[in-house]
Amino acid sequence: MQPSRTLGALGLILALLLTACGGSGGSTKVSDPGLTLGPTSLSFTSAQGAISPAPKAIRIDISSPDAAYVGAAWVGSAAPDWAVISDLSGSGRIWHVQVQITNTSLAPGTYTATLRVGIAKSDGNTIIGTRDAQITYQVKTELAATPGALNFTHVVGSSAPSSQSINITGTGLAWQASADKPWIKLGNSAGTAPSTVAIQADPTGLAAGSYVGVITIIPQSGTGTVHVQVNLTVTDPVLQTDTATLSFTGVNGEPIASKALNLAMSNGMAVNWTATASAGWIVLSKSSGITSDVLSISVDPSQGALASGAYNGTITFFGNQAGVAVSTTVPVAMALTKPTFPLTPRHWF
User: Fold this and answer.
1) What is the DSSP string of 25-39?
2) Which of 2, 48, 200, 238 is the most exposed place for a label (fewest CB within 10 A)?
3) Alpha carbon of 287 to those of 152, 296, 325: distances in Å?
4) Range 157-161, long-range pairs (CB < 8 A, 24+ positions)
């Protein structure tokens, strides 16, 4: 008979598996139980707090012609709280039982459990034989750091970017840290995990461009040298507005509401600015000032006696930052619709 059902769905037979040979872990007395396991043990390793290791499987080869059921269960008064039997599948004489680690937050150490595989006859009450496999899980104390990368941005002339933090784990491990670039400043270069370290990117003297450095954290004992990448992007200051484009719509000949436009330097510095409009129908509340500044922008179709339709223009702002010319242009669109005149009914006598 080919085994076609698993004991995972049959509580009674599963209980028989655990009690057939002493219940709490005694191995079978059957000299030839009609099945073999390969391998007969599984070993897992992970760092405390790390992601779970990949599941592993044991192959079950069944030689007994009377086997109708195959199943697997943990031996002992309770299943381990760090692993599960995640799959039991197969057909005919070849099956596989898979074990998955589910808990990586355990204290460092070595944990063991016994997995029992058994086969039973079709009556559901007769165990043909069982074999045990040893499951071992080693939790290591290993240094780790999150996040694995830090990103800083800076505009020349502005204040340095705010510090960011990395969290170092690996309970009880003493560590030392260093950076390979002088612009990377460490809040502290040594400590004992768990630790939080403030990282500062100092852009003093750096020209516009992209910079990459690495922080290396080394444990004084244990394993797990950690590398954290630090990215710094430095940009030149620019004139910027809070609105990329301005659009106006209205009825030709009637007032059209104005709009506010905020102008500033990207590094927050104060610079003198001037502005010009490309068309006479674009009206600025002022044409010069000092950033940061607010302008009122309006449109006046009467400037040029414009016909109804669509019009496009621009406003260009100019400034000077530490001897470097800066500018920005804002497109302006206006759509004018024809006025409508209501008909007044008249009576003819």
Assistant:
1) SPPP--S--SEEEES
2) 2
3) 36, 10, 17
4) 157/237, 157/265, 157/267, 157/268, 157/269, 157/321, 157/322, 158/237, 158/266, 158/267, 158/268, 158/269, 159/268, 160/200, 160/201, 160/202, 160/203, 160/204, 161/201, 161/203, 161/232
pLDDT in tens, 333-348: 999 999 876 655 555 5
- Region 295-300: mean pLDDT is 95
* Extents of the domains making up the chain: 5-140, 144-235, 239-337
**Hey, which CATH number is domain 144-235, 3.90.180.10, 2.102.10.10, 1.25.40.890, 2.60.40.10?**
2.60.40.10
Angle at 295 between CA 294 and CA 300, to 5 degrees: 165
Residue 262 makes CB contacts below 8 A (sequence gap 6+) with 241, 242, 243, 292, 293, 294
**Spatial distance between the Cα atoms of 194 and 170, rounded to a whole number of angstroms:** 6
* Helix or strand run (H / E) with residue 237: none
CB proximity list for 126: less than 8 A, separation 6 or greater = 120
5-140 sits in which CATH class?
mainly beta
* 41-47 and 127-140 beta bridge pairing: parallel
Distance separating alpha carbons of residues 51 and 47, to the nearest angstrom: 8
Q: Which two tokens stand for residue 69?
A: 């059921």
**Per-residue pLDDT reduced to its tens digit, 326-336:** 999 999 999 99
